[in-house]
Amino acid sequence: MKPIAITPVAADPVEARLQVGPKNLWYAVCPSHFLADQPVSLRRFGRKLAIWRDDAGQLHALEDHCPHRGAPLSQGVVLGDRLACPYHGVQVRCDGTVTKVPGSPGCKLEGSRAALDFHVREAHGTVFVYNSDTHVDEPPPFTLPAELASPEYSNFLCYAEWECEWRYALDNVMDPMHGTFLHKQSHSMAEGENTAAFRVRDTEQGFVFEKTGQRGVNFDWTEWGITGLAWMRLEIPYPKTGGPGGNFAIVACVTPIGPQRCAVFFWRCRQVDGWQRDTWRFLYRNRLEARHWAVLEQDRVMLEQMEPEANQREHLYQHDIGLVRLRRLLKQVASEQVEAN
Asked: For the Rieske domain, which residue ranges apply (predicted)?
């Protein structure tokens, strides 16, 4: 894993909040296979997390910061639902409570809820963490889009870490027109017109940004939604040679890691069951997966080569109204959270 460059955060408190992502939301933080029998340290949404599994396989998360001296709890010993700090043996339970201070039994640190804890969920090969800077006894639920929530769909997770600001990755997905040009050699995005007019259509969860005169031909629309978790959704039409299941659905989440690094999650989904599900999964692993990674690599290279301040020197036009809408929405959320503090 590459080291994370530490750069100063923005002086503007709203921009500083946007750089690390809005609070009080669920975020996808890593694939499930990252967690085995040892704690893992991950930097996400401006914090360093210690995540581990207990003997029953249940996931827990604390800030990777021992309340005694700030040592990394992730380097410690797993004691079921507790971590024992490697520095002085201080034991911290998954709810943030210090249960034992071996070097000074009975001290005031024992029994205090001195560590920041995080709620964790696991679904579809992914670990989700609720991002709050205070203790939350009962986190709000989150709802996944139908392509992940319904058993009628089968999916594969594509996970990567990109060396770019997380909002660049959001803008990329909220820009259907780039598929016509950047991905024009792709087996799934070579069709349709290379000019288009777009519109924004509101939904209960957010909004859809779509082409007005073309549907079911190329990358023709993107949906943004917040259902306790912020996600994006789109469809790519597939020819019959792509196997059963109709259009190819993609659900995406992006999580900030550092000022110029983010974690991207793309679930590739199709509505299939029975023998068609088996056929589709075999076909994906043996033919389609490599092609999809090639498309993601094109996005990664493009975004990583953009200057960090590129979005400060833009000349936007009608194709960009979707990302403008998204930027305004995120800024509104960040402004409200800063004011609330």
From this structure: 26-129
Cα–Cα distance between 224 and 313 in angstroms, integer?
25
Phi then psi for 176, rounded to 5 degrees? -60, -30
Each residue's pLDDT expressed in tens, for the chain with a length of 341 residues: 555 544 445 578 999 999 999 999 999 999 999 999 899 999 999 999 999 999 999 999 999 999 999 999 999 999 999 999 999 999 999 999 999 999 999 999 999 999 999 999 999 999 999 999 899 999 899 999 999 999 999 999 999 999 999 999 999 999 988 888 888 877 677 677 788 888 999 999 999 999 898 887 778 889 999 999 999 999 988 777 778 878 889 999 999 999 999 999 999 999 999 999 999 899 889 988 888 899 999 999 999 999 989 999 999 999 999 999 999 999 999 999 999 88
Superfamily of 146-332 according to CATH: Naphthalene 1,2-dioxygenase Alpha Subunit; Chain A, domain 1 (3.90.380.10)
- Closest-CA residue to 255 (of 166, 128, 142): 166
The boundaries of every CATH 3.90.380.10 domain in the chain are 146-332
Q: What is the CATH number of domain 21-131?
A: 2.102.10.10
Q: One-letter amino acid identity for 211?
A: K
